[in-house]
């Protein structure tokens, strides 16, 4: 099975994607890991797409991430798109708690990049993940709802999960 888990930053898509990959015993592929380089520099699209294409040749995987500009590559290979669509306040709370935890622990986010959250970056920067989540939450909901109705993607199976209970039920349904 090939699954792309999507959702706004802080929605819980990475947590779900890791659980799915473990449960299905398939590789977990993280778009952020493919994209981010040291000093918060991004990978050029051509290189990102090439690396992504190679990984998606595997017979099964769970892909964690949006990166909408890569949608045509991802969704050419995918069987199922799982949209984690929790409410605004829940998502805001989750992204805030995660960012603070990462800043306090000084955890490196992607091995070898040196990229870490800091309280300054979280609360006083234009690159704040909290600000990003605030700016993209509504846009993502509108985009994904359009995608689900788009005739170009009718060959895909979409699952929209709006509560933690639905996430648990979905995981049980796969066993």
From TrEMBL:
It comes from the Bacteria. It holds the Pfam family AAA. The keyword DNA damage does not apply. Residues 5-54 form the ATPase AAA-type core domain. Signal peptide: none annotated. Keywords: Kinase, Transferase. The keyword RNA-binding does not apply. One of its GO terms (molecular function) is kinase activity. PANTHER family: TOXIN (PTHR37816:SF1), YALI0E33011P (PTHR37816). This is Adenylate kinase. It comes from Kosakonia pseudosacchari.
């Amino acid at each position: 099975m090939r699954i792309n888990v999507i959702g706004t930053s802080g929605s819980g898509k990475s947590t779900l994607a890791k659980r799915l990959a473990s449960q299905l015993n398939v590789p977990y592929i993280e778009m952020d890991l493919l994209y981010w380089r040291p000093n918060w520099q991004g990978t050029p699209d051509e290189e990102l797409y090439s690396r992504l294409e190679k990984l998606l040749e595997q017979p099964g995987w769970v892909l964690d991430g949006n990166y909408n500009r890569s949608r045509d590559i991802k969704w050419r290979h995918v069987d199922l798109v799982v949209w984690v669509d929790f409410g605004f306040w829940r998502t805001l709370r989750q992204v805030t708690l995660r960012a603070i935890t990462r800043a306090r622990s000084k955890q490196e986010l992607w091995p070898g990049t040196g990229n870490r959250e800091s309280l300054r970056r979280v609360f006083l920067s234009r690159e704040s993940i909290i600000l990003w989540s605030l700016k993209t939450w509504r846009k993502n909901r509108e985009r994904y709802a359009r995608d689900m109705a788009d005739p170009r993607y009718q060959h895909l199976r979409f699952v929209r999960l709006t509560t933690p209970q639905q996430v648990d039920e979905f995981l049980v349904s796969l066993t």
